[in-house]
Amino acid sequence: MEFGWSEEDRRYRRELIAFVEEALPETWSELSADGPGSDAQAEFSYEFAGKLAERGWLTQHWPSEYGGGDATAWRHIVLSEEMWARGEPRGPQYMNVNWIGPTIMQYGTEEQKAHHLPLISSGQVLWCQGFSEPEAGSDLVALRTLALRDGDDYVVNGSKIWTSYANNAQYCFLLVRTDPESQRHRGISVLLMPMDLPGIEVREIPAVVGDRYFHEVFLTDVRVPIGCLLGPEHEGWSIVSYALQYERVGAPRYARAAKTLDEIAEHARERGLLDDLRIQERLGEARALCEAARVLTYRVVDQRAHGLPPTPDSNVARVAGTRADRAIAELALQVHGADALEYGGFADKNFRMAMTAGVAVGTTEIQLGLIASRALGLPKG
Ligand SMILES: Cc1cc2nc3c(=O)[nH]c(=O)nc-3n(C[C@H](O)[C@H](O)[C@H](O)COP(=O)(O)OP(=O)(O)OC[C@H]3O[C@@H](n4cnc5c(N)ncnc54)[C@H](O)[C@@H]3O)c2cc1C
After folding, report:
1. In CATH terms, are 7-125 and 252-375 the same topology?
2. Domain map (residue ranges) of the chain
3. From the alpha carbon of 136, which atom of ligand 1 is closest?
4. Of 138, 167, 244, which is best to mutate to test ligand 1, by the most ligand atoms within 8 angstroms of its C-beta?
5. pLDDT per residue over 182-192, tens digit each?
6. CATH of 129-235, one of 3.40.630.10, 2.40.30.10, 3.10.350.10, 2.40.110.10
7. Cα 9 to ligand 1 centre (Å)
8. Pocket residues for ligand 1 (CB within 6 Å)?
9. Quick one: which atom of ligand 1 is closest to the CA of 166?
10. SS3 of 29, please?
């Protein structure tokens, strides 16, 4: 593969960086300290994503008929890199533009597209994803939340767990079992559920990554109109598989990790550690991991830019991204020494965030299993 940015792409990145530097308030580091799920960041995301939308940058990789700019997937990865490197000022809306919008575009009815896509492309809506359940995480097809038809509604009962952003979301991309007799991959459907329906209760789960990060969502006799069904009834597994391929490379963790690495190197210099060959070696290794993750992600972007269907390369890119994140967080502990013990300090915060990297969107073990079976053709263990 030969790769090089065009002059237009470079100019776009420069303009984007200049815009972000002006648009982020001086208080951004405090505002973003609790991650994209905090109330403050969710609120700020409307203002910030709105400004990106005004410039045509929020969904520029979407077709113009859906509020996009017909740009290639490359423009979107430039945007995502610069956002992640700065603590994701789009807040939870990064999910909307990465995979919720494209999945609605692929499977939605004209009515669903007309309702949801303009809200997303103007930066005025927050979503959450209701996949995991207490007994269905890695083994997602064990999900038990039931949605049974009753007249013009589905009546939904069950619960979801680890739901990021549920506290501020207006909609949930909800995975349910619509055929109570079904098992595993069959009989699953997707509902685009408004979060203000009676019977939905959101409870926060305290977490090491920060407050307002994880939630449980309890669903008791929630009547979801049948118009909220995405794609064919009982065929939701193929929809969610499609969505996950987008989600896995949606957040370029390597961009944030590379920026963190710069700060670690600067700290090592200030502390006079750069003469230590072991530190030099680890800095070099960490940089190589970031670059590997970047190039592997670009391979997936290239496939998208050519309109090719998703492949296990997205699993490979995901594993590379989480490895870079972990390695850099561990290096920060080493370089910061005793200061790393300070709760909420640079090294501590990075480490806690990186711990979750290999869990979200399918754990590293699950990703490796998928690579083994789908990419290498090895028998399932
Ligand atoms: C930051 C973050 C954000 C998240 N946001 C959301 C969200 O918004 N919505 C949502 O629905 N979920 C969300 N999750 C949940 C996430 O998808 C699950 O935590 C993940 O799928 C793992 O499921 P589990 O926690 O039940 O662990 P388990 O599935 O119980 O796994 C426990 C351990 O067993 C290992 N394991 C399990 N099965 C296998 C296997 N077959 N082969 C090898 N090892 C295996 C796992 O790798 C893991 O180490 C989020 C998680 C994190 C960390």
Report:
1. no
2. 7-125, 129-235, 252-375
3. 26
4. 138
5. 989 999 999 99
6. 2.40.110.10
7. 36
8. 128-132, 137-138, 162-164, 356, 359-360, 362-363, 365-366, 369
9. 8
10. helix
Instruction: Compute CA distances 17 → 21, 22, 82, 206, whole Å.
Output: 6, 9, 7, 34
Q: How many angstroms separate the CA atoms of 39 and 168, rounded? A: 7
If you take atom 40 of ligand 1, which residue's CA is the nearest one? 366
User: Ligand 1 centroid to 5 CA: how many Å?
Assistant: 36
Q: Which of 134-143, 182-191, 204-213, 323-332 has the lowest mean pLDDT?
A: 204-213
CATH number of 7-125: 1.10.540.10
On average, the pLDDT of the chain sits at 93
Architecture of 252-375 per CATH? Up-down Bundle (1.20)
Task: Note the pLDDT of residue 249.
Answer: 72
- Reported as a single tens digit per residue, the pLDDT across 273-290 is 999 999 999 999 999 999
Q: Exposure string (b/e) for 190-225, b if CB count within 10 Å is 16 or more?
A: bbbbebebeebebeeeebebbebbbbbbbbeebebe
Per-residue pLDDT reduced to its tens digit, 65-95: 999 999 999 999 999 999 999 999 999 999 9
